[in-house]
């Protein structure tokens, strides 16, 4: 698959293609942008391009043995590191660094792809930094992140950053039609939930998630003592759910707060992300000011940051709902 087939990222792909064609590769790239907009696929295509037998560093043919093996994750000279649990562990980084010291076995370059690089703890980040300072020859490192602010400044300064943009509604519509069997109404809902990302991870339980969001919408309209009696025990359940319900809650709160800010500034209701919950949003307008919406948005970001740093998820969610209740009463 040629790099040019990455959709919605023309400026970023142009920068990458020019670097490849001129053979002026940085020792490390950092792809920054929302989740599921093409960062990981682009990293894979770079690995294919650097090891392609047909185009030999100009592009990826997608047909030769190295290209096919890289696509399925079975090529000796390409390594993908992902979080193991909450974090990228020190042992994973140490193993990857040892792997990088060897010369390419079957291709021209060794390519290390570090997905969710912001999930490195300080110990593993410091270990990784040493390799960024003096990378081995014939190696390329690609870090993928949605939150560069969580990475060490010294890591940021040693990477060439490439920005990936949210996908347009037209591209999202086409991709969801190609990759899912959802009805139009469900595809439109999923597109808005993604806010520029293609959320294929939500496809399997669209109906269940919509019902859960409706319940959250009912609670958030008026959070009294009886609602808190229901909500607080659920925080443990959401925190331990295998489908990452806690993360779905934070995602939903971000869209909800965005919609509240939209309505508070009297912007068009047709652009709301939660149009199916418009009555509940209107009721919330009476309880939240612009200042409280901003404070809550910052609280959601803080909870994400704390959980990424191994804070107790249940306590974080409980504190967030208590904050919601307090700001309603203020």
Describe this protein's structure.
The protein is α/β, with parallel strands linked by helices and 330 residues long. The chain folds into 2 domains: 3-163, P-loop containing nucleotide triphosphate hydrolases (Rossmann fold); 205-329, Zinc Finger, Delta Prime, domain 3. The chain is built from 14 helices and 5 strands. The protein has a 5-stranded parallel sheet, with helices on both faces. Helix 5 links the parallel strand 3 (110-114) and strand 4 (139-145). The chain is globular, with a radius of gyration of 22 Å. It starts with 9 loop residues before the first helix and ends with a helix.
Summarize this structure briefly.
54% of the residues lie in helices and 8% in strands.
Task: Output the number of helix runs.
Answer: 14
The gyration radius over C-alpha positions equals 22 Å
How much β-strand is present in the residues?
5-15%
The level-1 CATH class of the largest domain? Alpha Beta
**Arithmetic mean of pLDDT:** 90
- CATH topology-level name of the largest domain: Rossmann fold
Task: Bin the helical content.
Answer: 40-55%
Unreliable spans: none
Tell me the number of strands: 5
Largest sheet: 5 strands, parallel
Order of helices and strands: HEHHEHEHEHEHHHHHHHH
Topology:
Blueprint: H1 10-21, E1 28-32, H2 39-51, H3 65-71, E2 78-81, H4 90-100, E3 110-114, H5 122-133, E4 139-145, H6 153-156, E5 160-163, H7 169-179, H8 184-194, H9 206-221, H10 225-240, H11 245-264, H12 278-285, H13 290-308, H14 313-329
Helix pairs in contact: 2-3, 4-5, 9-12, 10-14, 11-12, 11-13, 13-14
């Amino acid at each position: 698959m040629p790099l040019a087939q990455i959709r919605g990222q023309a400026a970023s792909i142009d920068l990458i293609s020019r670097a490849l064609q001129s053979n002026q590769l940085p020792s490390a790239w950092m792809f920054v942008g929302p989740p599921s907009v093409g960062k990981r696929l682009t990293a894979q295509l770079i690995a294919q391009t650097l090891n392609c037998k047909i185009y030999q560093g100009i592009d990826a043919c997608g047909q030769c043995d190295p290209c096919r093996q890289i696509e399925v994750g079975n090529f000796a000279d390409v390594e993908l590191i992902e979080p193991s649990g909450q974090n990228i562990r020190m042992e994973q980084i140490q193993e990857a660094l040892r792997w990088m010291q060897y010369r390419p076995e079957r291709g021209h370059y060794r390519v290390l792809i570090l997905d969710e690089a912001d999930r490195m703890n300080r110990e593993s980040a410091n270990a990784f930094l040493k390799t960024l300072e003096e990378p081995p020859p014939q190696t390329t490192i690609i870090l993928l992140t949605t939150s560069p602010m969580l990475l060490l400044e010294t890591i940021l300064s040693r990477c060439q950053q490439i920005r990936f943009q949210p996908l347009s509604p037209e591209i999202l519509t086409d991709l969801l039609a190609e990759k899912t069997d959802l009805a139009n109404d469900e595809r439109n809902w999923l597109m808005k939930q993604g806010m520029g990302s293609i959320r294929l991870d939500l496809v399997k339980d669209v109906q269940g998630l919509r019902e859960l969001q409706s319940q959250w919408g009912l609670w958030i309209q008026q959070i009294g003592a009886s609602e808190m009696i229901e909500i607080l025990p659920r925080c443990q359940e959401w925190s331990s759910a295998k489908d990452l319900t806690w993360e779905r809650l934070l995602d939903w709160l971000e869209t909800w707060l965005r919609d509240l800010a939209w309505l508070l500034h009297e912007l068009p209701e047709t652009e709301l992300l939660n149009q199916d919950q418009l009555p509940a949003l209107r009721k919330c307008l009476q309880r939240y000011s612009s200042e409280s919406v901003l404070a809550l948005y910052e609280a959601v970001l803080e909870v994400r940051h704390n959980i990424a740093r191994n804070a107790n998820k249940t306590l974080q969610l409980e504190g967030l709902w208590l904050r919601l209740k307090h700001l309603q009463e203020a």
